[in-house]
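Task card 7
Instruction: Convert sequence to structure tokens.
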Amino acid sequence: MGFPLGIYDDVTYEEWVMNLDPGDILVFHSDGLSEATDPDGNFFGITRIASLIEQNAAHNSDQLADCLLAEVQEFTRGTAITDDRTLVVMKVR
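Output:
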């Protein structure tokens, strides 16, 4: 969590290194996905995102992104989008 990239010139960000193996999946998303709500006000949630990634890990990155976005859309059942839904999916070869 931190400041969005590009908003302020003098912000420093935490840096870290991670070794990745073939088949690893990286998913970056805005809170617009995890905090998308259904008509009853329930959040889609990080746990649901992680579960969908695990269940659909065999898909390529485009298919996985489409699956995640479709599941969020179905969960919200047409309620108004009140936040951005930014998503980047990468698979290590």
